[in-house]
Design brief:
Layout lengths: L10 E3 L6 E3 L15 H16 L4 E3 L7 H12 L6 E6 L4 H15 L4 E6 L5 H13 L3 E7 L6 H10 L4 E5 L11 H8 L2 E5 L6 H5 L8 H4 L5 H10 L6 E2 L6 H9 L8 H10 L1
Parallel strand pairs: 3-4, 4-5, 5-6, 6-7, 7-8, 8-9
Antiparallel strand pairs: 1-2
Helix pairs in contact: 1-2, 1-10, 2-3
Bound molecules: NADP nicotinamide-adenine-dinucleotide phosphate (NAP).
Length: about 280
């Protein structure tokens, strides 16, 4: 158990690249798909502010998420935090030309000249997009390449694709409610040095229903955990193959809460099993 009191957020290496990312980032599906009204945008500006203030940097989005890329582009510019952030988006379409156009549009919406990570969303037409992704990396417009999915029944496909093609990152679902990835996919990624970004850490919020009115179990105290959100996230971060987690929220207080899971002790294997038993 690591009990050192850290002043900066825990970070994990990106495979064998020598670079690392803070463990708690932010997703944006649904939450950032809003219009231009100040009352819709103000809380999201504060969500981003909390992420950056906590030392978090990973922001995940996709052209699938309605207006999210454009909203992120506006708010990142307003806060002037581009240099602090590590931005990931996706390509989610069929056909090479459509893919190229979509990636160009995403970069314009996000107002970036360079993406830290470009992922193939749900593996859609992945072989067709590969030459585009490789070319963008060679041109320096994209730093890392990845693939994503969000359902356990696609984990075998992810593993097959990761075995066939060299990717830096893979993004998939993993949580106390959806543990399938720990059987094969997480060990596979660890062995191969593939960085893992975890989506659906709260099973899209459903996990909070199950613990409504339930007090935190005693093990939370020894891990410096003050909320169920932190409990769920620290359990994920405790898996040694996990690089970062991207909980989504439209509430600044929840972003602050989530970011606290990136500080203090990290549960070891024994503590993780106790946490799983207790929730
Ligand atoms: N195929 C793919 O590539 C794929 C698929 C799924 C997800 N993703 C990525 O992963 C991200 C996360 O997954 P997700 O959006 O499905 O769901 P999630 O992060 O598991 O859950 C989000 C929900 O949890 C609530 N929440 C967040 N923090 C909380 C806290 N501290 N306390 C209480 N409630 C809290 C949010 O509500 P509030 O707004 O009220 O906080 C929201 O309803 C996505 O946004 C997306 O970027 C990618």
């Amino acid at each position: 158990m690591n009990t050192g009191a850290a002043t900066s957020m825990l970070a994990r290496p990106i495979g064998r690249t020598g670079e690392s990312v803070p463990v708690i980032g932010m997703g944006s599906s649904n939450t950032f798909d809003v219009g231009v009204a100040p009352d819709e945008r103000a809380p999201l500006l504060d969500v981003l502010r909390e992420l950056a203030a906590a030392g978090g940097s990973v922001v995940d989005t996709s052209p699938m998420y309605g207006r999210s890329e454009g909203v992120l582009g506006d708010l990142i510019e307003e806060l002037a935090v581009r240099a602090k952030l590590w931005i990931a988006t996706k390509v989610w379409t069929k056909g090479r030309e459509a893919g190229e156009q979509q990636i160009g549009a995403s970069m314009r919406e996000l107002r970036v000249k360079r993406l830290e990570l470009l992922q193939i969303h749900n593996l859609l037409d992945w072989q067709v997009h590969m030459p585009t992704l490789r070319a963008l990396r060679e041109q320096g417009k994209v730093k890392y390449l990845g693939v994503t999915h969000y359902r356990a029944d696609a984990h075998a496909d992810l593993e097959r694709v990761l075995g066939a093609e060299k990717f830096d990152f893979v993004q998939f679902n993993y949580s106390l409610a959806e543990r399938e990835a720990e059987h094969r996919l997480l060990p596979f990624c660890r062995d191969r040095g593939i960085a893992v970004m975890v989506n659906r850490p709260f099973a899209d919020g459903a996990m909070f229903q199950r613990v409504r009115d339930k007090p935190l179990p005693p093990i939370a105290r020894e891990l410096g955990i003050a909320s169920w959100g932190q409990y769920f996230l620290k359990w994920i971060v405790g898996h040694p193959a996990v690089t970062c987690v991207i909980p989504a929220t439209a509430k600044p207080k929840h972003m602050l809460d989530n970011s606290r899971a990136g500080f203090g002790p990290v549960p070891d294997a024994r503590q993780r099993e106790a946490m799983a038993q207790a929730w």
